[in-house]
Amino acid sequence: MSKARSTMGQCGITSSKTVLVFLNLIFWAAAGILCYIGAYVFITYDDYDHFFEDVYTLIPAVIIIAVGTLLFIIGLIGCCATIRESSCGLATFAAILLLVFLTECVVVVLGYTYRAKVEDEVNHSIQKVYSEYNGTNSDAPSRAIDYVQRQLHCCGIHNYSDWRNTRWFGESKNNSVPVSCCQPSIGNCTGVLTRPSELYQEGCEALVVKKFKEIMMYVIWAALTFASVQMLGMLCACVVLCRRTHDPAYELLVTTNSYA
């Protein structure tokens, strides 16, 4: 009976250690993925920053990059602690995993919070950005609007007719919108309003909001996915740690192996 219990304990330890090593490899991969997602948010924000006055929108991205960097360190600690069967290393590994798990819970909460604020942010700033448009590449708001209209295939705030209410439209006096409103499949498009079929029909406000809500969802799902993996890592580390500390069969196994 004692031998069967010892065999079961050894099997449980071996399984937990195998899972831990595998999870540490996942943590290294996760570190790269999380850093990529955070960098993607930063790059996208840089292209759309004129539509967001609140820089706190970037907080989830900052946290998720920090978590990705920490995950790489965690993977290194976890591998060393698992292979060396170090009680101190496993305890440190489990404690750091708990900290990262709580941090990712904060990321999820902030992601949902700022996802809800995106629409208000865009509504508040987009009118100002369009009113500052002057059609020159040297002007940052103008470049931002032209970029967004080309990338998102949109024109104006709600539709192309919104350009009639801008200062640029009144000053140009040519009854046209910027050529960035032109559909790429149309040749020789000048943006003239007498040919509206050549222009993008959808407004940019809704598409900018949709774009950033999608990005926030990427951040949220990434945090939730890796938080669940970390829970499994904490569980396995605790199993190995508890068995190593309290299970005589495990101590006997280590002693036998050390003399083998």
TrEMBL record:
Name the SUPFAM superfamilies for this protein: Tetraspanin
The membrane spanning regions, by residue number, are 21-43, 55-78, 90-114, 215-242
Pfam families reported in the protein's UniProt record: Tetraspanin
Q: InterPro entries of this UniProt entry?
A: Tetraspanin/Peripherin, Tetraspanin_animals, Tetraspanin_CS, Tetraspanin_EC2_sf
Topology in the lipid bilayer:
Multi-pass membrane protein
What do we know about how this protein assembles, alone or with others? Interacts with claudin-11/CLDN11 and integrins.
Record-stated family = Belongs to the tetraspanin (TM4SF) family.
- Purpose of the protein: Regulates the proliferation and migration of oligodendrocytes, a process essential for normal myelination and repair.
What's the protein called, per UniProt? Tetraspanin
Q: What lineage is this protein's organism placed in? A: Eukaryota, Metazoa, Chordata, Craniata, Vertebrata
